[in-house]
Amino acid sequence: MKQLNIGLVGYGFMGRTHSNAFLQAPRFFDLPWRPVLKAVAARNEERVKKFAENWGYESYVTDWRDLVNRKDIDVIDIASPNDTHHDIAIAAAKAGKMVMCEKPLGRNAKEALAMTDAVEKAGVPNTVWYNYRRVPAVTMIKQLIDEKKLGRIFHYRAKFLQDWTISTDLPQGGEGLWRLDVAVAGSGVTGDLLAHNIDTALWLNGPITEVTAMTETFIKERKHTLTGKVEPVGIDDASAFLAKFANGSLAMFEATRYARGHKALYTLEINGEHASAFWDLHDLHRIQYFDHKDEGRVRGWRNVHVTDGDQPYMKHWWVPGLQIGYEHTFTHQFADFVQAAANGKSLPPTFRDGLATDHVTDAVLKSAKSRQWETVATA
Question: Tens of pLDDT along 97-111?
Answer without folding.
Answer: 999 999 999 999 999
